[in-house]
Amino acid sequence: MTRPAEKNRYANAPRNADYTIDQMWHSYSAAEHDRWDRLYARSEAMLQDRAVLEFLNALKALDLSQSGIPDMAELSDRLEPLTGWRVVPVVELVPDAVFFDHLAHRRFPAGAFIRPEAEFDYLQEPDIFHDIFGHVPLLADPAYADFMQAYGRGGRRAMSRNMLPNLARLYWYTVEFGLMRAGDGLKIFGAGILSSVGESRFALDDPSPHRIAFDLDRVMRTDYIIDDYQQTYFVIESFQQLLEDCYADFTPVYDRLAGQGAIAPNATVPSDAVITPGTLDYFKQTKGSAA
Ligand code: HBI
Ligand code: FE
C-alpha cells in the first residue's frame, strides 16, 4: 500500500534494513534548492552572535554554504576525516533501536525531504534543513562527536533497562534544545533552536523560559513539550563537560532515578542552579494553562 507522498516525497522510497534510502540528490528541484538557500541565509545571518563558536566554525569547515541542498555522501566525505562521522539519508524518524545503532557507529540519520513552502518557518517533523543545518555541523567538534557516539551506545543499555524516556530527555535538553555558557552570555548549540529563527530569539532573549545549569539527574527527570518553544532551557559549560558528565555508564544514575518522579517542564526545584528564572508569560498567554 503506497502512502500519498503529500509533503515528504521520499515517503515511499525503498528502504534498506537499516532504514537508510538513496538520497537521489539529482531529484531535488531548483525550487527546493532555492528554499534551502533562503532557509540557510536567514538562519546563518541571525546566528552569528547567537550560536556557539564551534557551530559557526563548522559551517565553514564543512563548506555548508548557500549552494543548494547538500549531497549527503559528499558532505560525509568532508566530515569523516574530521571526526569519523557520516550522514546517511532516511525518510523520517527511525525506530529508537535503529537510531541508536547508527549513532553508535558514527552515522547520523538525516531526513532527505525539505519542508514545503507553507511550513517555511516551522514544521513538526525533522526535515533536511533541521537535520543537516541543525545537527550535522557540531559533529565536526571532537568532544561533541564523542558525546553523540556515547549517547548511541547508551541507548541500547537504556532500552534494556526501560530507561529510554530518561535518555530521550537528555537528548532533548542538550542535542535538540541545549544552551552553553560562553564568555559573558549564553549561546545556542541545540539543533531544534539553531534550525528555528523564532526559537533562536526566544531561547536567548525572552524573559519567559527558565534557564538552569545542566545537571544530569535533573535533566533526566524533566518532561518536555514537543509542539512549542521550551519552558526550560539547560545550560552546559562546554562540550567537554557534557561528555564527562555523560560518558560514564548511566547505571548509577538510573538507580538514583528509579524512585524519583518526573519534573514538569515549567517547574524549578530547590537544588536548581537557576541562571535566569522565567516568568512563563509566553505559556500563560498561549496555553492559558496553569503554566
Ligand atoms: N530518528 N531519524 C531520526 N532522527 C532522530 O533525531 C531520532 C530518530 N528516532 C528516535 C529519536 N530521534 C529520539 O527518540 C531519540 O531520543 C532516541
Ligand atoms: Fe533533531
Description:
- The protein is α/β, with parallel strands linked by helices and 291 residues long.
- The protein has helices at residues 30-46, 53-61, 72-83, 96-104, 128-135, 142-160, 164-176, 191-194, 197-205, 216-221, 239-247, 251-258, 281-287; strands spanning 86-90, 107-111, 179-182, 185-188, 210-213, 232-236, 274-276.
- The structure holds 7,8-dihydrobiopterin and fe (iii) ion.
- The site of fe (iii) ion has 6 residues, from helix 5 and helix 8.
Q: How do the SSEs run, as a string of H and E?
A: HHHEHEHHHEEHHEHEHHEH
SS strand fraction: 5-15%
The name of the CATH topology is: Phenylalanine Hydroxylase
Averaging pLDDT over every residue, what do you get?
94
Structural class: alpha/beta
Radius of gyration, taken over Cα atoms and rounded to an integer in Å: 19 Å
Q: Give start-end ranges of low-pLDDT stretches.
A: none
Helix and strand arrangement:
Elements: H1 30-46, H2 53-61, H3 72-83, E1 86-90, H4 96-104, E2 107-111, H5 128-135, H6 142-160, H7 164-176, E3 179-182, E4 185-188, H8 191-194, H9 197-205, E5 210-213, H10 216-221, E6 232-236, H11 239-247, H12 251-258, E7 274-276, H13 281-287
Parallel strand pairs: 1-2, 3-6, 5-6
Antiparallel strand pairs: 3-4, 5-7
Residues 126, 130, 135, 176, 191-192 line the site of fe (iii) ion.
Can you describe this structure in just a few lines?
This protein is an alpha/beta fold and 291 residues long. The protein has helices at 30-46, 53-61, 72-83, 96-104, 128-135, 142-160, 164-176, 191-194, 197-205, 216-221, 239-247, 251-258, 281-287, and strands spanning 86-90, 107-111, 179-182, 185-188, 210-213, 232-236, 274-276. Helices cover 45% and strands 10% of the residues.
